[in-house]
Amino acid sequence: MTISNSLRSWVRGIQFFDLFLFGSSTLLLFLGLLMVYSTTNNDTGTGSLLRQALFAGIGLAGMFALAVYDYRRLKKLTPWLYLLTIALLLVVYFFGPVVRGSVRWIDLGFFRLQPAEFAKLAMVVVMAKFLAEQGDRMRNLRYIALSGLYLAVPMFLVLIEPDLGSSIIIFAVWLGMLLFSNINKRHMVYVMLAIAVFSVVAWFFILHDYQKDRVYTFLDPNRDPQGQGYNVLQSIIAVGSGQLWGRGVGRGLQSQLDFLPERQTDFIFASTAEELGLLGSAVILALYALMFFRLIQSCRSARDNFGMYLSLGVFIMLLSQVVINIGMNIGILPVTGIPLPLMSLGGSSLITTLLALGLVQSVVARQKAVRFAG
Asked: Which long-range contacts (CB under 8 A, 24 or more apart) does 68-73 make?
């Protein structure tokens, strides 16, 4: 490709950007950086903020690159992407350092890579290609089972880290995309029954005791207020203490006095609600709502099934994370350790989210380019 052709591709990618999607996600990113600074300044100074800003820069560069890249070329790369994901998860299992009883990261020295985060996006791409190619054959139970096999390997490797939260998101992506495929609705009943059976088996033979305790704590946070229930109770207190206007950035009592654990990651929404109040929380929810609305629009207007399924998968991946994270912050869902997209501290999660949005921008750009040419 010549320099002029490359330049035209970049111009077209930016020209046909979905500005509402880009604007809402960028504002959430800046709010996240603000809250990362607020919740970590007492511990690390500006160190955490600078690292997160660096990850944001890498993620934004990747987002622009993918927006320019023709998403349809991913079809040929999908098998390699799937194998790379499996390989990274195996490296984690055999060689990853143990941190707080879990093996989730590959220590690269300057950066701790969390392959489970990238596995979420990889499964979106894998499922998008599979569903787009199979089409009406998804009415056959054999192809539903085949899609389940594609899911089972990475999900199992993530589950045994153990990382229940990420495995739930990967499963949600598969199930959500399957629901919008050409699957026979009667077969969907069989799938749901299989899920119910697996859930029972997982409860007795797969889940660890601390993961079961989180469910018990969700049902009754006061059951162990100084132990498993502590995080949930402190989070609920933080959300409520923000009231309408909030206590101000850097002035939240629960977060700044270390009553709220994981305030910069799992419970960053509670920290935000305490410091920015109900109005600040409403702005964040409105920005997420706008982002999801634009993702749905991208899904509906995609020029082909592969693009439609890509946008749908990204929508499900991000929506499930937002719902679960905010739900556990306000005490209506169990704590599962899922980051809040674009806001929680963490390089792997942030970069993955921005790459996912870049893929959607690529779908939007090609759809708009076709309409413009017509």
From this structure: 68/9, 68/10, 68/12, 68/13, 68/14, 68/362, 68/365, 69/362, 70/362, 70/366, 71/306, 71/307, 71/310, 71/359, 71/362, 71/363, 71/366, 72/304, 72/306, 72/307, 72/366
Report, as an integer, the average pLDDT of 125-153: 92
d(CA 132, CA 127): 8
Q: Is the pTM of this model over 0.70?
A: yes
CB atoms within 10 A of CB 275: 26
Q: How many residues does the chain have?
A: 374
Residue 112 DSSP one-character state:
E
Residue whose C-alpha is closest to residue 115's, from 80, 55, 157: 157
Q: Residue 113 pairs with which residues in a beta bridge?
A: 106
Whole-number pLDDT of residue 256: 78
For 227-232, the CB contacts below 8 A with 24+ separation are 230/261, 231/260, 231/261, 231/262, 231/266, 231/267, 231/335, 232/328, 232/331, 232/335
**Closest CA relative to residue 90, chosen from 82, 79, 99:** 82
Preceding omega of 162 cis (within 30 degrees of 0): yes
Per DSSP, 104 falls in state -
* Interatomic CA distance for residues 266 and 312, integer angstroms: 25
Q: Residue ranges of the domains in the chain?
A: 3-373
Locus of tokens 């903020």: 49
**pLDDT tens figures, 72-90:** 999 999 999 999 999 999 9
